Amino acid sequence: MHSADPFVAALETWVEAFMRRSMRHFMRYSRESGLSMSQVGALFHIHREENCGVSDLGDNLGVSSAAASQMLERLVQQGLILRSEAPNDRRAKQLVLTEKGRQVVQESIHARQGWLNDLAAMLSAEEKAQVIAALGILLEKINRLEETADSK
Known about the structure:
Blueprint: H1 6-33, H2 37-48, H3 54-61, H4 65-77, E1 81-86, E2 89-97, H5 99-113, H6 115-122, H7 125-151
Antiparallel strand pairs: 1-2
Helix pairs in contact: 1-5, 2-5, 3-4
C-alpha cells in the first residue's frame, strides 16, 4: 500500500524496486558462491565490526551462540574467517575476515550494486545531473533526521 502523498509514494516505489533488484542479485551471488544468506550476513557483520565475538554475531543474526558457533566453524573451514583468542579475554573468541572472506564481501557488494551501472547507462547526462541533485537533497535531509534522532 502506497502513501497518499505522491512524493512519499514515489519514494516507496523506488525503494521497493531498488530493494527487489538488489536482493535478487545478492541472493543469486549467495547461491552461486555456495553460501547461505546467514553466512553472507555473518561475513558482513564481521567486516563492519572490528572486535566481533561469537555472541555478538549471534545477537546480530538472531540466533543462539551455539548456532552462530556452528556457522562460524563452517566459515573457518572454508577459509573465509579466522577465529582466535581475544587479546583482552582469552576465553572469548575474536573473529576476522581472511583475504578470501574480504573478497567474498566485495564480490557480494558488487553483485548487489552492479545493476546500477546498467541503470546509469540508460540515463542522459542531464538526467544524471537531476538525480545527483535530488539525491544530494535527500541525503542532506536524512543526515538531519539522524542528527535529530541522535539528540533524543
